[in-house]
Amino acid sequence: MTSAQVEHEHDGKEAVEGGEGYQRGLGARQIQMIAIGGAIGTGLFLGAGKGISKAGPSLILAYAVAGFVIFLIMRALGELLMYRPVSGSFSEYAREFIGPFAGFVTGWTYWLFWVVTGITEVTAAAAYMTYWFDIPQWVSALIFTLVLYGANLISVKLFGELEFWFSMVKVTAIIGMILICAGILTVGFSDAGDTASVSHLWNEGGFFPHGVGSTLMTLQMVMFAFLAVELVGVTAGESKDPRTVLPRAINTVPWRIAVFYIGALIMILSVVPWTSFHAGASPFVVAFEKMGLPAGAGIVNFVVLTAALSSCNSGMYSTGRMLRDLALNSQGPQFFTKLTRSGTPLVGTTFSAALMLVGVWINYQWPGKAFDYVVSFATISGMWAWIVILVCQIRYRAKSDRGELPKSEFRAPGAPYASWFALAFIGMVIVLMGIDKDARVSLYCAPLWGLILAVAYLVLKRRNPEAAAFRRR
């Protein structure tokens, strides 16, 4: 069957609805901003301060190398999406190219990733609100969760609009910072005007002030900053024109990373020496303070609030789709298949939102190490999705080259060697996580979660043999 035949098979209904009953309500404008927003989060606005203090200006190189690997991952995902654009794509591709158990693990792991991420982000958003208002954090957390839950149930178009404006705030903030820094470097205004210089990138102890080893150790936090960039793949089943829109969104990954990460860091570190930054402080806030712009703290607080709400919004969206995908494949409770009239997964989204609220309450009541371990696990579970994408692309390419499957219209460059390189890079990052005592906690829960899923799958397979069968949708 050719790709044209595959596309023709789904003509008609898919013009209005996705292949699994979803409505194709996400347009090009929204998909582009979802793709942009997925690569920009609190990892940049807050977490980069720790990276700068550890690696100095060489953090720029770390973002560049990691960004190249992220592009390879996204092109691998793009090849799979053009072969078969389906919602819940990661677990669906895992079932087809690795096996039903891999699909089961991927679906439930990615669901857990977004539930935990949603809990942490809505908790953080509530904390950010105390900057302006003296209100209990649980009140803000409850309001944010209910508003985002309602928006996700109304329609996928409303989710897309919210994500569009959340991403717009983040993009505007970064571009504004870059322009201000460029003005300081060329015109010399503000308190930092007399000392601002590109030479800060190599004069303050060199480009690698703490050695190459310290730069390598930052790769783990750099990769974590890119988590959720793959979310654009989950939107495939609800994009109005996925075969046109998704490749365009994926091809913008290099310039997004070049501008929003590399460009922003070059500008900030040129205006303010890297020695002025430290862990726990946003580099944007520190830069504004050094420039003599005290309003910058409030601005950055608003931006990180937006970033947190954007992440929670994405969590609401993806968890419902993942649960429904599992249910459609007999790997989850069948009541998760229920859709609203507007084509949103009612039960799955409701169940996930309820867990997020419970998690927020637990976090407030017992903010101990146990919860920290679960949060840390979110990082390794997010990277699992990248590993699955790459393995599936390698196997798909081999089958398509043999003529067993139609060739994708959007082939990943350099594959399969580029995908093997990306897998090796992720493997190196995981090893670095094990070496770093602050990061290795991320690895502790993975074996336990894997054991729970293995036992659950064996029980499920015994009760329902269809759970171990792949059915193309």
Structure write-up:
With 473 residues, the protein is mainly α. It has helices spanning 3-9, 13-16, 28-38, 42-45, 48-55, 59-83, 89-97, 100-129, 137-154, 156-187, 200-203, 212-217, 219-225, 242-251, 253-271, 283-290, 296-328, 346-365, 369-401, 417-435, 441-463. 52% of the residues are buried. It has 21 helices and no strands. The chain is globular, with a radius of gyration of 22 Å.
Average residue pLDDT: 83
| Envelope shape | globular
Strand content: under 5%
Total DSSP helices: 21
Q: Whole-number radius of gyration?
A: 22 Å
> Which residues form runs of ≥5 with pLDDT under 50?
1-18
Task: Spell the H/E element sequence.
Answer: HHHHHHHHHHHHHHHHHHHHH
Euclidean distance between termini CA atoms:
15 Å
Structural class: mainly alpha
What characterizes the major β-sheet?
none
Number of strands: 0
- Helicity range: 55-70%
Q: How do the helices and strands line up, and which of them pair or pack?
A:
Elements: H1 3-9, H2 13-16, H3 28-38, H4 42-45, H5 48-55, H6 59-83, H7 89-97, H8 100-129, H9 137-154, H10 156-187, H11 200-203, H12 212-217, H13 219-225, H14 242-251, H15 253-271, H16 283-290, H17 296-328, H18 346-365, H19 369-401, H20 417-435, H21 441-463
Helix pairs in contact: 3-10, 3-14, 6-14, 6-15, 6-19, 6-20, 7-8, 7-19, 8-9, 8-17, 8-18, 8-19, 8-21, 9-10, 9-17, 9-18, 10-15, 10-17, 17-18, 19-20, 19-21
